Amino acid sequence: MNSDLRRMISREYERDRIQAKRLSRERMQEVYAKEPAVRELEMEISAQGFLLAKIVLGEMDLHAAHGIRARQKSLVAEKNRLIERAGVTREYLEDVHRCRLCKDTGFVNNVSCVCFKSKLIEKFYSLSNVSKSIENENFATFSFDHYATEDCGHGISQYDNMRLIYSAAKEFAARFPNVPSNLLFHGETGLGKTFLCNCIAREVLDAGFLVLYVTAPQLFKKIEDKRFGGDEEFADTQIDLVYEADLLIIDDLGSEFGTVVTKSELFNILNSRILEHKPMLISTNLSYEDFRDTYSDRIYSRVFGGFKLMKFFGDDIRALKKFANS
Question: For residue 55, how far is the Cα from the chain centroid?
Fold first, then answer.
């Protein structure tokens, strides 16, 4: 998958270089219009360079090189003087590339340029499905203000429980991809499961990893559409992401319309990623019992044997926030 994205970015760089050449020609035309002699000087500079090449190839006397280089240096100085007289700066002529470090090649001394890494992360964001959500839902904006501090029958308060879950989420994101285990967020709606999924997605994306965030209904509908009807909106590369993304987040598992196909596909996804040690994060509103009743024993075994279970409980935070702001 990363190779597909790299090829996509390489094509973008090629378009950028073509644009840079066009812009460079346009700006030189401005110079020629003000100082026509610059064009003639460039032609003579090129001719001097051709003579130097002949010396390198052994077609001319090496003693002539000194005079040619001196002549070329003089011509370049005159050219720069005329360009300056035209009121055009060197930066204006040179700053035609999107990235001045790599000149829109993506590499500096055979090492990926910072702009290449930025482009890759940008692609990761666009493929993740959470680019808008994580602007507002991330660790920096997470608040414990509405979580109750009294014990509500679980042996621990909602507030303290969320502190533990929050710490586990932070550790998961900080240690990625070397996470101690996959995570399963489970509990009633409105308790912060999706919010924390977005928090983790933001951190992992910003660290330069490929994240795919998808709701269970969205995921399985697209897979079924692709299998039975040919869904062009869900490209093969996006289906591949389910298996190949550095982190797969499935939100609201259990809310999809269950079929033999979806259950089989879910097992394949879980089994493949666990075997290949590719981290996952799943959220569900289902209880342990409902989960077992909804899915097969082998799916239940895969999830409850390969994930760290984080139970959310307490009052509906969304409702409390809405009431507080009303």
Answer: 50
